[in-house]
Structure formats: C-alpha cells, structure tokens
Amino acid sequence: MAYQYVGRPWHEVEPVLRAAGTNYTAEIARPARDFFKIDEKYLYILRERKDPEGSLQFVLAARCTGVLPVQRLLALPCERERGCPWNGLQDWQ
Known about the structure:
Layout: H1 10-20, E1 24-29, E2 38-50, E3 56-64, H2 67-81
Parallel strand pairs: 1-3
Antiparallel strand pairs: 2-3
C-alpha cells in the first residue's frame, strides 16, 4: 500500500478526505510525559492504514514546540563567529 498522507499536516488532508467522501477515523497520539511542550493546533499524520472495509485510519501527533528554541541556541555560535544565518544545513565539525 502506498502511503499518500503520512507526514502531511492534518488541516490540509481532512478537507480533501471530506470532499471525496472518504470514510476515515483519526486518533491523536499524545506523549506519556509532558517534558516537551506540544501545540495541538498543528497536527501531523504519523500513520495511515486502510482497513478491510476500505476506511482509512490515521494516527495524528501534535507539533513539538520545544524544538525550535534548541535549534536557535545551536545556531548562535555560528551566527556570532562566522556571520552565517541558521538554516539547519551547517556542517558541525
């Protein structure tokens, strides 16, 4: 089975499914601990499965809000020392 929705934002996929009249169920996966803060307004599709009746089953997860500040902290030495902006592609040696 080809997964056509995995990794995509739920707010983009849900209207497409409704417009096509596709039967589906969606379950939100939540972390067991609250160490990393999440933003439940931004849901992404983690798993996609088609049951024998043809209905799609999705497992959704919220975006983690604690990742971006860490990326910015890692970028600060690069920005100070070399004057390059952070784009996530720097080689860290």
